[in-house]
Amino acid sequence: MLINGTDYLVLTLDFETFYGTGYSLTNPKYNTFKYITDPQFKIHGVGVQIDDDTENAIYFRHEQLYDAKVWLNGLRKRFNKPIALNCHNTAFDGLILWHCFDKWRPDYYLDTLSMSRGMFVGFPANLKDLAIRLWPEDETRRKGDELITTFNKRELTDAEQDVLGGYCMQDVNLTYLAFIEMEQYFPDDEIEAINKTLRFNCWPYFECDQALLNEEINYQLSQEAEILASAADQYAATDATIDTFKKQLSSNPQFSALLERLGVRVPLKKNPKNEDIPALGQKDWDYQKLVASHPEHATLWAARKNAKSNIQLSRARWVQAVAQWWGGQLPVPLNYYGADTSRWSGGEKLNLQNLPRNNNGEIITDPNSGRLRRSMRAPEGGVVVVRDLNNIEGRVLAWVAQQQHLLDLFRNGDCPYLYMAAGIYGLNFAEMTKKSHPGERNVGKVAVLGLGYGLGAQNFWVQLNTGPMGMDPIPCDFPFAHRIVTTYRTTNDKIVGYWGRCDQYLADMYRGASYEDGPLTIGPNHIMLPNGMALQYPNLQAREHANGFDFKFGPKGPNRKIYGGHLTENIVQALARVIINEQMITVDRNLRDNYGWDQARLVHMVHDEMIAIVPEDKGDEVYQMMGDVMSTPPTWATDLPLLSEGGVAQEYSK
Fold first, then answer.
1. What is the mean pLDDT of each run of 10 residues along the chain (654 residues)?
2. CB 140, CB 360: distance < 8 Å
3. What is the pLDDT of residue 360?
4. GO biological process annotations for this chain's record (predicted)?
5. CA dihedral (54, 56, 61, 65) positive or negative
């Protein structure tokens, strides 16, 4: 089958494995890596099919797994073709092939689970639901439910193996048919994006510095203990132990009682039964307002956050464990179409997106900063090459809205954050630098990155006071936050106007209009992007009121709000993602053609950043090549000013 210009043998494959009480991927204590390396792991069987040849499809039972290895290893020689592996959840099956079949890997990765996420955004992507969506009238194309009969059974009878084999081969055939059905509508670049995503996961290249990970874990534990002890001195009962106090902070009823004793009103929200319950989650808006309104209890808020979940500690432990299970290597699991805007998201409890950087770029003035990121290293003889697109969302937003002064700042290499800060504080922009006005620049940065999508003054005030974008809190009163919002909107009138344009897009999508506007094509319930994929708003509904319309949408009915500013954010993020994917494809092919992927390849990406591991003597050369690619605007936005930055090091530190 021809895939992106190459004729591949499509191998559709599905593993059936033991699962039981406490041991399954639905258990939050497990991820795929732990599941596969657990002593309980057992392959009951594996089904395989070549292209559409159902007559010669095979189900190998557990006792035939050696035969399956021989069969797999002989495929390329037998057919004299490269192999494209097709599964429904290839991240799972591909890892089993790597871990249990002597690091077997295909020449190309396909995945109908990923394709389902991209084609039916927001809908369940499992094979059962996908089959119903693809063939609503064909009852013969349905996923069976026989797997449940093997629950808690490590040893299967011949009869049970026959049933499981039939179930498996039905899945294999459905997966192949689903790929054929969706592939005709799927852009080539997106098929390639799926291949890269799975290669990051199933063909690991990073190595891990276990000593640094131990340092990070110990540091997080000491920080947690310090925060709890400090809060306990102020808020715990005199006879309470640290453990007792931590439980008090973790329990909503006990924490509510503590707040009431302090004279702080506990915010409430409705549960699914329409009952009032405390709104004390870190993402609850009323709790965020509470935190912003009571900075005198900052120690208590920090202790509550740590008691509920220390994300950095949890992530460091998972990274360390996965690297140990995987022989010192670290796969990079990402979710293709992890967000509705088509961006990737972190997976498998590692969330290797948005790892904190060093606090001061190349110079590590604080050894505790960026340690988790720095623990990811190139193998001996290699280097990590990193390039990220500078403020890509800000550039795309300025371009779609045609905010000319911002575009000029980007083209001239000037700092939009300092420019915004000059307007906020009434300073002379020409006399400002990052070193001379770091605090003002931070406020300008938060304004530029946070106010481009319609955020109001009250929300912005909460953001500043609770710590915006991973920064420390920026204490301020509401009038100051309101003045920043007003200054931003006055300075960026074209961006504000684009929010209104997006309100019109929503109205046009709702009434079923179809037309092109720049790189976008507006249609019923969707906006087509220049890469052939779409922002999707199923079941879009409008409700008229005195000031206009409110819009809602959702796969299960109109239960999610959408408005002009929010749609602006969706469009900007989606276009930025189209750009980075096009650039990754160009870079990756360059690495393949000039060095070979066994020597130099992309190993990770983070929204606006791509990461490669290459031979040490090729680092600077590859860095320059990546810079050339990432400064070239796409064909659909030839006047979009792009700039990238990064570096070359033994570790992932830039």
1. 95 98 96 97 98 97 97 95 98 98 97 98 97 97 95 96 97 98 97 98 96 95 94 91 93 95 94 92 92 94 91 94 96 96 95 78 65 96 97 97 98 96 96 95 96 96 90 92 98 98 97 97 98 97 87 94 97 98 97 95 95 97 98 97 97 90
2. no
3. 46
4. DNA-templated DNA replication; double-strand break repair
5. negative
Both structure tokens of 222? 């000491």
Q: Which of 520, 528, 530 is nearest to 634 (CA)?
A: 530
How many whole angstroms separate alpha carbon 489 and alpha carbon 487? 6
SS3 for 24-52, per residue?
A: CCCCCCCCHHHHHHCCCCCEEEEEEEECC
- Beta strands of 142-242 (E only): which ranges? 206-208
**Angstrom distance (rounded) from CA 474 to CA 451:** 16
Parse the chain into domains and list their residue ranges: 2-204, 210-313, 404-491
Pull the structure tokens for residue 484. 């920043």
Cα Dmax for the chain: 82
Q: Determine the length of the chain.
A: 654
Asked: is 2-204 a CATH 3.40.50.300 domain? The reply is no
With b meaning 16 or more CB within 10 Å and e meaning fewer, what string describes 449-481?
A: bbbbbbbebebbbbbbbbebeeeebbebebeeb
CA gap 330, 177 in Å, rounded: 33
